[in-house]
Amino acid sequence: MSCPQTQDLVHAYLDGELSLTEQLNFEQHLSTCPHCQQAYRAFQLLHERLHDPALRFELPEKLRRQLQETSMPGDSVWRFILPRAFAIAAVVAIVILAGVSLWLSRTNQNSLSRELVDAHIRSMQADHLTDVTSTDQHTVKPWFDGKVDFSPPVMNLAAEHFPLLGGRLDYLRNHPTAALVYRRDKHLINVFIWPESGPDQVTNESMIDGYNVIQWRRAGMHEAAVSDLNMTELRQLVGLLY
Amino acid sequence: MVNNGLEDYAAEEFEKRMTPATKAALFEQIVLPHVEAGWNLARWMTHDAHDAEDVIQEASLRALRFMNTFRGEDGRSWFLAIVRNLCHGLHRQSRGRDKTVPLDDQIEVLEPTTLPPLEKMEKASDIHQLRQAIERLPLEYREALMLREFEGLSYKQIASVAGIPMGTVMSRLARGREKLVELMTAAADQQEGTP
After folding, report:
1. What's the CA gap between A147 and A152, in Å, rounded?
2. What is the pTM of this model?
3. CA distances (Å), A230 to each of A38, A130, A237, A239, in order?
4. What confidence tens digit (pLDDT) does each residue in A154-184 have?
5. Cα–Cα distance list, A82 to A12, A207, B20, B38 (Å)
6. Which of A26, A147, A166, B94 could bond A133 through an S-S bridge, CB–CB 3.0 to 4.6 Å?
7. In chain B, which residues have their Cβ closer than 8 Å to the Cβ of A34?
8. Strand duo A175-184 + A132-133: pairing
9. In which region does residue B148 sit, left (phi positive, over 0), alpha (psi from -120 to 50) or beta (all else)?
10. Three-state SS for A46?
11. Looking at the complex, does the CB of residue B103 fall below 8 Å from at least one CB of chain A?
């Protein structure tokens, strides 16, 4: 059994590289093609196996120190003074140069994505996935009253195959955060919510350690969906919540 | 958006202000956050820790030396491209030690392939087998897979890091993943003693 037309599209689909039209066409094809379904499941499984932390090599401490000193002269006195001088010089250089503000916001964004992934992983350790376990949004939403100083939007999307499992209190970026837990097949998805002013828009998409993170702003809330679910299906969830 | 005139002016000003102190500070902000990613890539793309160490140290020196060519876009892709190119240089020198399976990049028309049944793949859960299978992938497939699966780079970013067209990124990822599934299930079969 083989499918010459779309067998390569399954990769672009899993990697979130298809346009919306291409995606819809492919999903339609997927529902009728056993070969592509098998390929989809096989490569999704491979993706999960590949983000085993045992496959990553850790930078040895000694090497890290050597690399940090790459830019500094050898003298030990200088090693103390220079980092501070560098910091001041850096601030001056940054203020002068055009286009560096773009890079600054990217660095900040990377560390937020990292925090979100860490929070997601922590939630799946031991017994701490949900503080309130209910598929009913009318139970989960009021549970947050008095625990956070905002009212998070809560929806049960079981009809769209993203059932709500419950909610949890979390803490990110110095702010109490509402975490909603959704499920798609065997994948858990955390949606972190905290107040943030600004225009409604999708602000960032990234992948860290095999976890996909999509962030957006809507109705005065910053929301972030984190999961090892593939990017295309995660975008579907975001589309329903946005 | 910055127009060309302003960008050239910024580049000139950048060169004028590139004192060693500035370079060092920017190195710390732009390169150091990505040395772990660079190390992981170098480790997978070279034969051993010793080679990877040479690569990452050389990559850091080059990044420092050519800091003024960094245009503020994607620090990670910029640094990983340096690492990647050094790994390929090393690979060309040591062809004799190559234990990878042959590359079928030349095949333009992609033959439809049949994957082994899913249950076989689910059984092949040994991390050592997976690691060995990755090591046996041709370097070009391995790098595309690492950049996509470990670093989450987009196809466009992978194309820029590896210096290849997007179409080649897609075919290398597809072939790499298929090969990996093939190698993993073959290893699992061997372990079980089934043909």
Report:
1. 11
2. 0.68
3. 16, 23, 11, 14
4. 999 999 999 999 999 999 888 899 999 999 9
5. 47, 34, 10, 25
6. A166
7. none
8. unpaired
9. alpha
10. helix
11. no
Distance, in Å, from the CA atom of A120 to the CA atom of A122, rounded to the nearest integer, reads 6
| pLDDT-based confidence at residue B5 (cuts at 50, 70, 90) | low
Q: Which residues pair with A182 in a beta bridge?
A: A164, A189
List pLDDT tens digits, range B72-109: 678 899 999 999 999 999 888 776 555 566 565 544 44
Pick from A22, A57, A75 the residue to mutate for testing the B interface (most B CBs within 10 Å). A57
- Quote the CA–CA distance of B169 and B153 in Å, as a whole number: 11
B 59-88 → A contacts, CB under 8 A: 60-61, 64, 71-75
Residue of B182, B160, B151 lying closest to A55 (CA atoms)? B151
Q: Does A46 touch chain B (CB under 8 A)?
A: yes
Per residue, the 3-state secondary structure of chain B, as one string, reads CCCHHHHHHHHHHHHHCCCHHHHHHHHHHHCHHHHHHHHHHHHHHCCCHHHHHHHHHHHHHHHHHCHHHCCCCCHHHHHHHHHHHHHHHHHHHCHHHCCCCCCCCCCCCCCCCCCCCHHHHHHCCCHHHHHHHHHHCCHHHHHHHHHHHHCCCCHHHHHHHHCCCHHHHHHHHHHHHHHHHHHHHHHHHHHHCCC
Distance CA A92, CA B22 (A): 9
* Inter-chain CB pairs, A–B, below 8 Å: 157
Q: Which of A52-56, A131-135, B29-33, B155-159 has the highest average model confidence (pLDDT)?
A: B155-159
Please give the order of strands across the beta sheet that includes A175-184: A132-133, A164-172, A175-184, A187-195, A221-227, A211-218, A201-208
Crossing angle of helices B75-93 and B155-162, rounded to 10°:
50
Return the half-sphere exposure (C-beta side, CA atoms, 13 A cut-off) of residue A130: 18
Which pair of structure tokens corresponds to residue B188?
Answer: 């699992």
| Closest-CA residue to B82 (of B152, B16, B124, B30) | B30
Asked if B14's CB is within 8 angstroms of A45's CB, the reply is no
